[in-house]
Amino acid sequence: QVQLVESGGGLVQPGGSLKLSCAASGSIFGFMGWYRQAPGNQRELVAIITSDGSTNYADSVKGRFTITRDNAKNTVYLQMNSLKPEDTAVYYCNADDDIDRSLNYWGQGTQVSVSS
Question: How many Å apart are CA 90 and CA 9, to the nearest integer?
Answer without folding.
Answer: 9
